[in-house]
Design the sequence.
């Protein structure tokens, strides 16, 4: 089958790398990079479109023009930014999803990917090895928009037979694009400042453990899920995806193995700390392992070495 793949939110941290990978697999002309902004240099070589997910008429135009067989809906306002603009975050995260799901049903799109997040968990969720099914009481707009989105995804699968697939991403770390305003952004910023300044002030406390994942693993997981046979998938809300759990101190210690002069400090009273304190420390992704063979590749040491090597080349 000749795929026609539409990526919405292509300029973001995930979208930038996903577009490049999908074009390597399916061909440049088969992957349309769309975003509310002009295309970034990484994905401007192939077909690009400007689109606002709040504008259903413009979305419909894209569906009519390309008749996509697959859609990756990545446009969202993330956790920390969402707390500054809560109503906008809810509107964009919810309206964008429902409009894309409606159009996917109407145009008989074969598969839709939509990212959820560990932000769906909350203060009463188990913090260690958080299971696929448990108490979920998110206390951020981003978190409860993602939890509501999971319900909509499963609803469209059950009611309309739409093949929607989703992953609850942990914090994502990559070197090819800037992070997008999330609570885990420190784990990207630290590498840039370690190379530029040999120091970094973390907005999360020294002992804050959170699940993280190197972007290469996240992209591989995303495409693996989309390639999995539909009859093997047992989760139609969103799959837990475990990564590597570490604290800011543990990450700093790993960076010091490569940059011995690096110094870490910690800020006080950052609002992102309260968000992090409500999230899991580690995730149980047994269902992803069993259903579609998920297995992580990058541990903390491998990720740190690769980040510093690639950023060092980029900044030299």
Sequence:
């Amino acid at each position: 089958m000749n795929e026609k793949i539409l990526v919405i939110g292509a300029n973001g941290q995930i979208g930038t790398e996903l577009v490049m990978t999908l074009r390597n697999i399916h061909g440049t002309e088969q992957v349309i990079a769309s975003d509310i902004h002009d295309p970034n240099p990484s994905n401007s070589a192939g077909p690009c479109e400007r689109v606002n997910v709040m504008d259903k008429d413009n979305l419909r135009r894209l569906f009519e023009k390309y008749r996509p067989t697959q859609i990756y809906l990545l446009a969202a306002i993330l956790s920390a930014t969402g707390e500054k603009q809560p109503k906008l975050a809810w509107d964009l995260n919810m309206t964008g999803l429902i409009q894309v799901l409606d159009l996917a049903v109407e145009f008989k799109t074969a598969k839709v990917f939509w990212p959820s997040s560990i932000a769906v968990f909350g203060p009463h969720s188990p913090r260690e090895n958080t299971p696929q099914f448990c108490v979920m009481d998110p206390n951020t707009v981003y978190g409860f928009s993602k939890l509501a989105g999971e319900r909509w995804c499963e609803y469209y699968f059950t009611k309309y037979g739409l093949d929607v697939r989703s992953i609850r991403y942990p914090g994502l770390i990559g070197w090819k694009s800037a992070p997008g305003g999330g609570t885990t952004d420190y784990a990207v910023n630290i590498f840039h400042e370690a190379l530029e300044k040999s120091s970094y002030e973390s907005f999360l406390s020294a002992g804050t453990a959170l699940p993280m994942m190197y972007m290469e693993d996240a992209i591989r997981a995303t495409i693996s899920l989309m390639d999995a046979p539909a009859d093997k998938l047992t989760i139609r809300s969103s799959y837990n995806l475990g990564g590597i759990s570490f604290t800011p101190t543990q990450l700093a210690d790993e960076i010091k193995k490569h940059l011995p002069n690096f110094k870490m400090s910690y800020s006080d009273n950052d609002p992102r700390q309260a968000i992090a304190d409500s999230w899991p420390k580690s995730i149980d992704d047994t269902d992803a392992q069993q259903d579609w063979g998920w297995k992580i590749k990058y541990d903390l040491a491998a990720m740190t070495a690769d980040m510093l090597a690639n950023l060092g080349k980029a900044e030299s």
